[in-house]
Predict the 3D structure of the following.
Amino acid sequence: MRTITTREQLLVNGKVRERVATHIVTGAHGYETLCTSGYNVSYNDKRGLIENCEKQEELPITCPTCYVVWHDVHKFNSGNFDTESGKGSFTEIDLTEISIGR
Ligand SMILES: [Zn+2]
């Protein structure tokens, strides 16, 4: 189980709003959160830090987006995945090119 706590700042109608949230981390593509934001340090056009990693491996998870993603995904189990027939990987098929319009 991996989590990460981030601090994010957003400029909304001239006011800086700050959000601190703990996210679920997945190793599927390295080290990223379930939601789209998370373990990224990013800067706005004035080079101000708008997102920053604070802590790691802290519970409870507080990110509502991570909760929704987890809730949808955890109902699947390993038997729901096709890992044996070969259909689980992309298959290249030759299709006839079609042209649109004349
Ligand atoms: Zn999240």
About this structure: The first strand starts at residue 3 and ends at 12.
